[in-house]
């Protein structure tokens, strides 16, 4: 669909809008199913907190690595690997855009209390780069623009996790002493192993070719990998449900919402449940107090976000989470909360999409298809993979990752965690309104006339 005339362009936009609507609608259905089975059957519900936590561990330790081995082992080649370098650049650019706006611009526009500064910088910088794109890309891969490519979604899954590798590196670059865990985590090992299988074609064929000598092993890997998508979606839905229940309970306890007949109590999830449960690309474990992680007594820090063991003397530019919470300090004002939501859902994506449009106009290699669009003869001749650019743009418009909330809770900032919980409670429903527009624009940019 190249949209050679005005009528064709309008028709294409409607097609792209339909694809975006189906993608977001699919996400809503997953959340609805997860919420229903988190509540029913009574009294505990089927998707309990323990199930979410255990299934999250299974995903990160087994299903995701199997998916990466299968997807990369069957679809990766030298040309595709070279093209994916552009995705690494876009991942870095998207994250840096959000960080610059959150760290330098937002505090100049609205008052952010000191103890909320770093938690909100983390929340605005790091988007949900795993579970939500996994849900969104599945129907997009079946849209008219990509329907002729049966392997589009397999490659999309692999690219999502390549993007997530940059996400992890930048997160731990804030100061957490866990770089070795990033490099040895099962998803990263899956990326490395799948890349080797894809580039060393005889090895990949031995596993994944029907006549390969190790075809039974490859079949098991592929079957386990295929289970990753549905499991990740249910985990995300269960995590959002239980997180919303916790947030509402905290607000009731503080008198901001009326209490029901039963006591207003929130059950705290296991420390890593929210991050892993959201399907985000978190390392195997968050740093604990013994490991130098973020749960020391208030007033002490370790390094970067997590501090260095010295008493904290935080300033506006400090990246320490170990900031004592003032006794009378409330959360963000309604105006500040609205601006934070606008930054994550509108302003940061607008900057990323604007840079993509500029790269199209300049036809920057790797960052956009040859000729600026997949509709160009150059892109067709080069065999460019459009999924790379769809993933890069979809990643720019997703809401915040829940991992920022985990870090804040481990630092003992209860009020900051409450403010973040309220932010997510509002942000995720609002994202269902903003993402269709951004995804429509993304498809128009990638597949429309340059």
TrEMBL record:
It comes from Cafeteria roenbergensis. The chain crosses the membrane at residues 13-40, 52-73, 85-105, 117-136, 156-175, 182-200, 220-243, 345-367, 387-408, 420-447. Involved in cellular auxin homeostasis by regulating auxin metabolism. Regulates intracellular auxin accumulation at the endoplasmic reticulum and thus auxin availability for nuclear auxin signaling. It is found in: Endomembrane system; Membrane. InterPro entries: Mem_transp_PIN-like, PILS1/3/4/5/7. This is Auxin efflux carrier. Coiled coil: none annotated. Residues 262-277 have a biased composition (Low complexity). It is a multi-pass membrane protein.
């Amino acid at each position: 669909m190249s949209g050679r005339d005005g009528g064709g362009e309008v028709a294409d936009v409607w097609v792209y809008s339909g694809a975006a609507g189906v993608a977001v609608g699919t996400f809503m259905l997953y959340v609805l199913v997860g919420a229903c089975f988190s509540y029913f059957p009574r009294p505990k519900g089927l998707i309990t907190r323990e199930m979410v936590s255990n299934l999250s561990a299974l995903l990160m330790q087994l299903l995701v690595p199997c998916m990466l081995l299968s997807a990369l082992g069957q679809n990766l080649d030298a040309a595709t690997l070279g093209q994916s370098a552009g995705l690494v650049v876009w991942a870095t650019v998207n994250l840096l855009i959000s960080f610059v706006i959150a760290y330098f611009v937002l505090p100049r526009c609205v008052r952010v209390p000191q103890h909320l500064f770093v938690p909100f910088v983390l929340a605005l910088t790091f988007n949900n780069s795993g579970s939500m794109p996994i849900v969104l890309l599945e129907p997009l891969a079946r849209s008219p623009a990509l329907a002729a490519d049966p392997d589009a979604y397999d490659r999309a899954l692999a690219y999502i996790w390549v993007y997530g590798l940059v996400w992890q590196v930048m997160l731990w670059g804030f100061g957490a002493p866990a770089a070795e865990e990033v490099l040895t985590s099962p998803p990263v090992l899956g990326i490395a192993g799948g890349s080797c299988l894809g580039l060393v074609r005889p090895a990949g064929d031995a596993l994944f070719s029907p006549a390969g000598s190790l075809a039974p092993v490859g079949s098991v890997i592929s079957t386990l990998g295929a289970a990753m998508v549905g499991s990740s979606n249910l985990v995300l839905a269960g995590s959002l449900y239980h997180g919303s229940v916790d947030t509402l309970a905290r607000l009731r306890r503080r008198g901001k919402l009326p209490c029901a007949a039963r006591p207003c109590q929130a059950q705290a999830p296991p420390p890593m449940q929210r991050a892993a449960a959201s399907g985000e690309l978190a390392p195997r474990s968050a740093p604990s107090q013994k490991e130098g992680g973020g749960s020391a007594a208030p007033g002490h820090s370790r390094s970067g976000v997590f501090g260095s063991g010295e008493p904290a003397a935080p300033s506006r530019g400090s990246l320490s989470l170990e900031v004592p919470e003032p006794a009378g300090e409330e959360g963000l004002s309604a105006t500040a909360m609205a601006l934070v939501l606008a930054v994550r859902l509108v302003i940061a994506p607008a900057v990323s999409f604007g840079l993509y449009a500029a790269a199209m106009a300049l036809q920057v290699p790797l960052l956009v298809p040859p000729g600026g669009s997949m509709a160009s003869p150059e892109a067709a001749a080069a065999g460019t993979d459009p999924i790379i650019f769809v993933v890069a743009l979809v990643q720019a418009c997703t809401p915040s990752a829940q991992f920022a909330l985990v870090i804040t809770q481990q630092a003992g900032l209860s009020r900051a965690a409450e403010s973040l919980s309220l932010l997510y409670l509002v942000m995720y429903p609002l994202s269902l309104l903003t993402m269709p527009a951004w995804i429509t624009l993304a498809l128009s940019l990638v597949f429309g006339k340059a």
